[in-house]
Amino acid sequence: MSITLKQVFNKDKTFRPKRKFDSGVDLRAAVALPHGEDLNDWVAVHVVDFFNRINLIYGTVCEFCTEKSCPVMSGGPRYEYRWQDDHKYKKPTALPAPKYMNLLMDWIEVQINNEDIFPTSMGIPFPKNFIQICKKIICRLFRVFVHVYIHHFDRMILMGAEAHVNTCYKHFYYFSTELNLIDRKELEPLVSQDRGFVPKGTLVPM
């Protein structure tokens, strides 16, 4: 990409129309599929919303997430994430966290803006593998939370943003687990943490 990382994660644009969620609502109840609602529509709205919100969360710490401070995309010493795609990185490849994040956000943006995957016109069906694609998006977005919580949460606290991040994470967690969009094994990096920043009652023992 030709633009700087800070520009990438301070985008003013919203990639798709997003639904606003009232922070005062019961998030656990709010994520349940409403009666009569199409599952694909429900998932699509939430995936786009989470992408925009998590993109902005990482944007608040991206200037402190450098190749020097974060030479590997990880979630503590036990968890390392390697990038793979259908283009340059056809095998899982270890990358610095900012490079990994850049590729991750670009990849999700491409999926969301692909009308064949996320149709916006009435009457155009979602692809048969839509939920599987969303599972991959959710899995990769979760890794942003892992990295931010474990490596940059002190910065969030200094900025007074921890409550916002925790609320977003709880919403994301409830939604992903309610609809079985994430493998419980993927949740282990934050389940295993005991540093007080993970919302109480959010994570469950594996």
From TrEMBL:
The alphabetized UniProt keywords are: Metal-binding, Zinc
Q: Where does Zn(2+) bind?
A: C65, C70, H147, H152
What domain of life is recorded for the organism? Eukaryota
**Record bears the keyword Phosphoprotein:** no
Q: Which Pfam family, just one, is annotated for this protein?
A: Mob1_phocein
PANTHER family associated with the record: MPS ONE BINDER KINASE ACTIVATOR-LIKE MOB
- In Swiss-Prot or TrEMBL terms, this protein is called MOB kinase activator 3B
Q: Which gene encodes it?
A: LOC112238228
